Amino acid sequence: MRERGLLRLAVVHIHGVSAWLAVIGAVVGATGVLRPEETSGAITVNAIDSGWYNSVSGIGYPDRENYAAGEYLPQDQPTENRNYFVFDLSGLTDLIAQATLHLYTGTAAGPGDPCETYRLYDVTTPIDDLRSGGGDAAATFTDLGSGTVLGERVVHWSENESIITIELTPSAVDYLNSTRGLIALGGRVTTIGTNPEYEYLFGGTESSSTRQLVLTYIPEPAALSILALGGLAFLGRWRVRQRCHEPF
Ligand SMILES: [Ca+2]
Protein backbone atom coordinates (compact mmCIF):
# COMPACT_ATOMS: atom_id res chain seq x y z
CA MET A 1 0.00 0.00 0.00
CA ARG A 2 2.84 2.34 0.78
CA GLU A 3 4.35 1.68 -2.65
CA ARG A 4 1.04 2.47 -4.38
CA GLY A 5 0.86 5.73 -2.51
CA LEU A 6 4.35 6.71 -3.49
CA LEU A 7 3.69 5.77 -7.10
CA ARG A 8 0.66 8.04 -7.27
CA LEU A 9 2.68 10.79 -5.69
CA ALA A 10 5.33 10.48 -8.38
CA VAL A 11 2.88 10.37 -11.29
CA VAL A 12 1.03 13.40 -10.10
CA HIS A 13 4.26 15.29 -9.58
CA ILE A 14 5.27 14.63 -13.19
CA HIS A 15 2.14 16.39 -14.35
CA GLY A 16 3.21 19.34 -12.26
CA VAL A 17 -0.29 20.17 -11.15
CA SER A 18 0.37 21.26 -7.62
CA ALA A 19 1.28 20.14 -4.17
CA TRP A 20 -2.45 19.56 -3.59
CA LEU A 21 -2.57 16.57 -5.91
CA ALA A 22 0.69 15.19 -4.63
CA VAL A 23 -0.66 15.09 -1.10
CA ILE A 24 -3.97 13.68 -2.29
CA GLY A 25 -2.32 10.85 -4.17
CA ALA A 26 -0.36 9.76 -1.14
CA VAL A 27 -3.39 9.87 1.13
CA VAL A 28 -5.60 7.80 -1.16
CA GLY A 29 -2.91 5.22 -1.52
CA ALA A 30 -3.05 4.84 2.22
CA THR A 31 -6.77 5.19 2.89
CA GLY A 32 -8.64 3.48 0.07
CA VAL A 33 -11.92 4.05 -1.67
CA LEU A 34 -14.51 6.81 -1.93
CA ARG A 35 -17.88 6.68 -0.31
CA PRO A 36 -20.82 7.40 -2.67
CA GLU A 37 -21.78 10.65 -0.97
CA GLU A 38 -18.31 12.07 -1.47
CA THR A 39 -19.12 13.60 -4.82
CA SER A 40 -18.08 16.89 -6.30
CA GLY A 41 -20.28 19.94 -6.58
CA ALA A 42 -20.55 22.81 -9.02
CA ILE A 43 -20.91 26.53 -8.62
CA THR A 44 -21.56 29.32 -11.11
CA VAL A 45 -19.62 32.54 -10.66
CA ASN A 46 -20.72 35.60 -12.63
CA ALA A 47 -18.11 38.05 -13.88
CA ILE A 48 -17.98 41.30 -11.94
CA ASP A 49 -16.37 43.14 -14.84
CA SER A 50 -15.37 42.77 -18.48
CA GLY A 51 -13.99 44.95 -21.22
CA TRP A 52 -11.37 45.32 -23.91
CA TYR A 53 -8.08 46.98 -24.75
CA ASN A 54 -7.33 48.24 -28.23
CA SER A 55 -3.86 47.95 -29.77
CA VAL A 56 -3.82 51.70 -30.46
CA SER A 57 -6.23 53.46 -28.12
CA GLY A 58 -5.91 51.38 -24.92
CA ILE A 59 -8.87 50.56 -22.70
CA GLY A 60 -12.30 51.14 -24.18
CA TYR A 61 -15.53 52.22 -22.47
CA PRO A 62 -14.99 50.56 -19.05
CA ASP A 63 -18.49 51.58 -17.96
CA ARG A 64 -20.12 49.53 -20.72
CA GLU A 65 -18.29 46.24 -20.07
CA ASN A 66 -18.48 45.34 -23.77
CA TYR A 67 -15.98 42.51 -24.47
CA ALA A 68 -15.59 42.61 -28.23
CA ALA A 69 -12.37 40.98 -29.48
CA GLY A 70 -10.75 40.97 -32.90
CA GLU A 71 -10.02 43.49 -35.63
CA TYR A 72 -11.69 46.85 -36.16
CA LEU A 73 -11.23 49.64 -38.67
CA PRO A 74 -11.42 53.09 -37.10
CA GLN A 75 -10.53 55.64 -39.78
CA ASP A 76 -9.65 52.75 -42.07
CA GLN A 77 -6.70 51.84 -39.87
CA PRO A 78 -7.01 48.23 -38.65
CA THR A 79 -6.57 47.82 -34.93
CA GLU A 80 -7.08 44.88 -32.62
CA ASN A 81 -9.20 44.46 -29.50
CA ARG A 82 -8.31 41.95 -26.79
CA ASN A 83 -10.81 41.36 -24.03
CA TYR A 84 -10.89 40.45 -20.36
CA PHE A 85 -13.20 39.12 -17.68
CA VAL A 86 -12.83 39.59 -13.91
CA PHE A 87 -14.22 37.11 -11.38
CA ASP A 88 -14.36 37.22 -7.60
CA LEU A 89 -13.41 33.85 -6.10
CA SER A 90 -13.17 35.11 -2.54
CA GLY A 91 -16.29 33.18 -1.48
CA LEU A 92 -14.96 29.84 -2.69
CA THR A 93 -13.19 27.73 -0.11
CA ASP A 94 -13.03 24.39 -1.87
CA LEU A 95 -10.51 23.12 -4.38
CA ILE A 96 -11.48 23.67 -8.03
CA ALA A 97 -11.18 20.51 -10.13
CA GLN A 98 -12.62 21.62 -13.48
CA ALA A 99 -13.76 24.88 -15.02
CA THR A 100 -15.72 26.06 -18.03
CA LEU A 101 -16.38 29.60 -19.22
CA HIS A 102 -19.87 30.40 -20.49
CA LEU A 103 -20.12 33.45 -22.73
CA TYR A 104 -22.87 35.20 -24.63
CA THR A 105 -21.53 35.55 -28.16
CA GLY A 106 -23.31 38.70 -29.29
CA THR A 107 -22.49 39.23 -32.95
CA ALA A 108 -19.48 38.34 -35.10
CA ALA A 109 -18.11 39.76 -38.33
CA GLY A 110 -15.49 38.50 -40.75
CA PRO A 111 -16.08 38.53 -44.50
CA GLY A 112 -15.55 35.09 -45.97
CA ASP A 113 -14.95 33.38 -42.63
CA PRO A 114 -17.57 31.04 -41.17
CA CYS A 115 -15.83 31.15 -37.80
CA GLU A 116 -12.99 32.59 -35.74
CA THR A 117 -10.78 31.03 -33.08
CA TYR A 118 -10.82 32.63 -29.64
CA ARG A 119 -8.06 31.83 -27.12
CA LEU A 120 -7.91 32.63 -23.41
CA TYR A 121 -4.79 33.62 -21.43
CA ASP A 122 -3.76 34.38 -17.87
CA VAL A 123 -3.57 38.01 -16.76
CA THR A 124 -0.55 39.25 -14.81
CA THR A 125 -1.49 42.94 -14.98
CA PRO A 126 -2.67 44.14 -11.55
CA ILE A 127 -6.47 43.86 -11.44
CA ASP A 128 -6.97 47.52 -10.44
CA ASP A 129 -4.91 48.70 -13.42
CA LEU A 130 -6.73 46.30 -15.73
CA ARG A 131 -10.15 47.58 -14.70
CA SER A 132 -9.27 51.28 -14.66
CA GLY A 133 -6.98 51.53 -17.68
CA GLY A 134 -4.13 52.58 -15.42
CA GLY A 135 -0.55 51.48 -15.84
CA ASP A 136 0.96 50.70 -19.24
CA ALA A 137 -2.00 50.09 -21.56
CA ALA A 138 0.21 48.67 -24.32
CA ALA A 139 1.67 46.14 -21.87
CA THR A 140 -1.83 45.23 -20.69
CA PHE A 141 -2.92 44.68 -24.30
CA THR A 142 0.05 42.33 -24.79
CA ASP A 143 -0.71 40.52 -21.53
CA LEU A 144 -4.31 39.80 -22.56
CA GLY A 145 -3.09 37.83 -25.59
CA SER A 146 0.00 36.07 -24.24
CA GLY A 147 1.25 33.83 -21.44
CA THR A 148 -0.39 30.66 -20.19
CA VAL A 149 -3.19 29.37 -22.43
CA LEU A 150 -6.35 28.84 -20.40
CA GLY A 151 -8.67 27.58 -23.13
CA GLU A 152 -9.58 27.85 -26.80
CA ARG A 153 -12.78 27.70 -28.82
CA VAL A 154 -13.72 27.94 -32.48
CA VAL A 155 -16.74 30.24 -32.60
CA HIS A 156 -19.04 29.88 -35.61
CA TRP A 157 -21.14 32.65 -37.04
CA SER A 158 -24.08 30.32 -36.59
CA GLU A 159 -23.51 30.72 -32.87
CA ASN A 160 -24.27 34.44 -32.92
CA GLU A 161 -26.49 35.61 -30.08
CA SER A 162 -26.17 32.37 -28.16
CA ILE A 163 -24.25 31.14 -25.15
CA ILE A 164 -21.12 29.08 -25.79
CA THR A 165 -19.02 27.07 -23.39
CA ILE A 166 -15.24 26.98 -23.36
CA GLU A 167 -13.63 24.13 -21.48
CA LEU A 168 -10.66 25.49 -19.58
CA THR A 169 -7.27 23.76 -19.46
CA PRO A 170 -5.67 22.04 -16.46
CA SER A 171 -3.33 25.05 -16.36
CA ALA A 172 -6.39 27.25 -16.02
CA VAL A 173 -7.56 25.17 -13.06
CA ASP A 174 -4.19 25.71 -11.40
CA TYR A 175 -4.42 29.41 -12.23
CA LEU A 176 -7.88 29.66 -10.66
CA ASN A 177 -6.73 27.77 -7.58
CA SER A 178 -3.84 30.22 -7.14
CA THR A 179 -6.09 32.80 -5.51
CA ARG A 180 -9.29 33.20 -3.55
CA GLY A 181 -9.71 36.84 -4.51
CA LEU A 182 -10.17 38.68 -7.79
CA ILE A 183 -8.80 36.96 -10.88
CA ALA A 184 -8.92 37.89 -14.57
CA LEU A 185 -8.97 35.99 -17.85
CA GLY A 186 -7.68 37.62 -21.04
CA GLY A 187 -8.56 36.68 -24.61
CA ARG A 188 -7.89 37.35 -28.26
CA VAL A 189 -8.97 36.22 -31.72
CA THR A 190 -6.11 34.21 -33.21
CA THR A 191 -7.46 33.98 -36.76
CA ILE A 192 -7.31 37.62 -37.82
CA GLY A 193 -6.45 37.72 -41.53
CA THR A 194 -3.91 39.87 -43.34
CA ASN A 195 -6.49 41.90 -45.25
CA PRO A 196 -7.82 44.92 -43.40
CA GLU A 197 -11.38 43.94 -42.63
CA TYR A 198 -13.72 43.85 -39.72
CA GLU A 199 -13.09 40.51 -38.12
CA TYR A 200 -14.35 40.21 -34.58
CA LEU A 201 -16.34 38.25 -32.01
CA PHE A 202 -18.59 39.31 -29.10
CA GLY A 203 -19.89 42.49 -30.74
CA GLY A 204 -22.76 44.23 -28.95
CA THR A 205 -22.07 42.59 -25.58
CA GLU A 206 -22.50 44.36 -22.25
CA SER A 207 -22.64 43.93 -18.49
CA SER A 208 -25.92 42.00 -18.65
CA SER A 209 -24.47 39.43 -21.08
CA THR A 210 -23.79 35.95 -19.73
CA ARG A 211 -20.17 35.84 -18.54
CA GLN A 212 -19.90 32.91 -16.15
CA LEU A 213 -17.36 30.53 -14.76
CA VAL A 214 -18.88 27.16 -13.93
CA LEU A 215 -16.56 25.50 -11.45
CA THR A 216 -16.61 21.89 -10.36
CA TYR A 217 -15.19 21.82 -6.89
CA ILE A 218 -14.20 19.17 -4.42
CA PRO A 219 -15.67 19.60 -0.94
CA GLU A 220 -13.39 19.05 2.00
CA PRO A 221 -12.47 16.51 3.18
CA ALA A 222 -13.55 14.43 0.18
CA ALA A 223 -11.01 16.29 -1.96
CA LEU A 224 -8.30 14.08 -0.60
CA SER A 225 -9.75 10.96 -2.18
CA ILE A 226 -11.75 12.18 -5.17
CA LEU A 227 -9.06 14.18 -6.89
CA ALA A 228 -6.58 11.37 -6.80
CA LEU A 229 -9.01 9.01 -8.55
CA GLY A 230 -10.46 11.49 -11.01
CA GLY A 231 -7.74 14.07 -11.28
CA LEU A 232 -5.37 12.20 -13.54
CA ALA A 233 -8.13 11.31 -15.99
CA PHE A 234 -9.24 14.89 -16.01
CA LEU A 235 -5.75 16.08 -16.88
CA GLY A 236 -5.78 14.24 -20.18
CA ARG A 237 -9.29 15.16 -21.22
CA TRP A 238 -9.01 18.76 -22.32
CA ARG A 239 -8.99 19.23 -26.06
CA VAL A 240 -9.48 22.02 -28.53
CA ARG A 241 -12.43 21.93 -30.88
CA GLN A 242 -10.54 23.23 -33.88
CA ARG A 243 -12.65 22.30 -36.86
CA CYS A 244 -14.34 25.27 -38.41
CA HIS A 245 -16.57 23.83 -41.08
CA GLU A 246 -18.26 21.03 -39.21
CA PRO A 247 -20.93 21.43 -36.55
CA PHE A 248 -20.08 20.43 -33.00
CA1 LIG B 1 -1.06 37.04 -19.96
Give the SSE layout.
Layout: H1 2-15, H2 19-31, E1 41-46, E2 49-54, E3 58-60, E4 69-72, E5 79-88, E6 95-104, E7 107-109, E8 115-122, H3 127-132, H4 137-144, E9 149-156, E10 163-167, H5 170-177, E11 182-189, E12 199-203, E13 211-218, H6 223-235
Antiparallel strand pairs: 1-13, 2-3, 2-5, 4-5, 4-12, 5-11, 6-10, 6-13, 7-12, 8-9, 8-11
Helix pairs in contact: 1-2, 2-6
The structure holds calcium ion.
Q: Based on Cα principal axes, name the global outline.
A: globular
Quote the distance from N terminus to C terminus.
44 Å
* Poorly predicted runs of 5 or more residues: 1-38, 231-236
**What class do helices, strands and sheet pairing give?**
alpha+beta
The CATH architecture of the largest domain comes to: Sandwich
Structure explained in plain terms:
This protein is an alpha+beta fold and 248 residues long. It has 2 domains: 2-31; 41-218, Sandwich (Jelly Rolls). 25% of the residues lie in helices and 34% in strands. The chain has 6 helices and 13 strands. It has helices at 2-15, 19-31, 127-132, 137-144, 170-177, 223-235; strands spanning 41-46, 49-54, 58-60, 69-72, 79-88, 95-104, 107-109, 115-122, 149-156, 163-167, 182-189, 199-203, 211-218. The strands form 2 sheets. Strands 2, 3, 4, 5, 7, 8, 9, 11 and 12 form a 9-stranded antiparallel sheet that branches. A 4-stranded antiparallel sheet has the order 1-13-6-10. Strand 4 (69-72) and strand 5 (79-88) form a beta hairpin. The longest helix has 14 residues, at 2-15. The radius of gyration is 20 Å and the shape is globular. It starts with a helix and ends in a 13-residue tail after the last helix. The model is unreliable at 1-38 and 231-236 (pLDDT under 50). Bound molecules: calcium ion. The site of calcium ion has 8 residues, from strand 8.
